């Protein structure tokens, strides 16, 4: 089957996710089934390390603390999730690069827009991050002197939103949003079964509340430290993570299941940068909290690997096996 036949095999709006389909199609040409998780693992960790290395090049770092931040990234990103999740975590990794280039590094706007688009065409779950970024741009340009202009813009925006909802992509997006916010909307769905299992699991509940606490901790430290002269930590960065953390907290506390977790993925990619400043400038309590998080995250890595059925076989070696042919 050629790529065009493969892409056309999807129904309706699913055809729009051409990046996702291309990624799957190309990797399906290889003879090993484990090439997909292997490449995903490589790309996610590579993109995370790229963000950190590029950021640390721009500041005068303490090398031992910088090394700890790289290590923290390896600890905070669950290997089991990366190997098993594929689409969503890879899309979040791409969005993280776009946001870093956009808000921290002030990169080329055309390239940044292209990365945003690629990420959205990889998985629809990252669209809210783009909407938050657009909302911040609107806030930054708002002025009471231009109230009439903004009222007109608001009317056009509402009309555009209604038209967007009527498109196949808009309908698909809002259907997915309702589907996950209502635990699958169907008692027979796999999502509903997983949400019930997650809500009944003591360890998953503990991880949810610790993750929410960690998100709030980073946000409060970010707000406190942004008054200083931290490279790239602008008002836009603080605003973006304020809205993102509020989204994580709202979904985690008031909605069933693990929908909150999809947005927490983004914290993985930027938390080492914030942890750097905690390690350098934080007080004793803040540093002790980071130590607590390291201990919990090591346990969480162990728990996920030992409690996912896919890891009962030689799955990890299977992920590495596509690479071993390079050394034969």
Q: Would you write up a description of this structure?
A:
By secondary structure, this protein is an all-alpha fold. It has one domain (32-141, 182-312). The chain is 77% helix and 0% strand. The protein is built from 16 helices and no strands. The protein has helices at 3-8, 18-28, 35-57, 63-76, 79-85, 87-104, 109-120, 127-140, 147-166, 168-181, 190-200, 202-225, 235-254, 259-281, 284-307, 315-324.
Could you give a quick summary of the protein structure above?
This protein has helices spanning 3-8, 18-28, 35-57, 63-76, 79-85, 87-104, 109-120, 127-140, 147-166, 168-181, 190-200, 202-225, 235-254, 259-281, 284-307, 315-324. It is mainly alpha-helical.
Helix and strand layout, with pairings?
Blueprint: H1 3-8, H2 18-28, H3 35-57, H4 63-76, H5 79-85, H6 87-104, H7 109-120, H8 127-140, H9 147-166, H10 168-181, H11 190-200, H12 202-225, H13 235-254, H14 259-281, H15 284-307, H16 315-324
Largest sheet: none
Report the C-alpha radius of gyration, rounded: 21 Å
Number of helical elements: 16
Helix content: over 70%
* H and E order: HHHHHHHHHHHHHHHH
Secondary-structure-derived class: mainly alpha
**Overall strand count:** 0
Percent of residues in β-strands: under 5%
The dominant shape is globular
| Cα distance spanning the termini | 31 Å
Oligomeric composition of the shown chains = single chain
User: How many structural domains are formed by the residues?
Assistant: 1
Give the rounded overall mean pLDDT.
80
The residue ranges in which pLDDT falls below 50 over 5 or more consecutive positions are: none
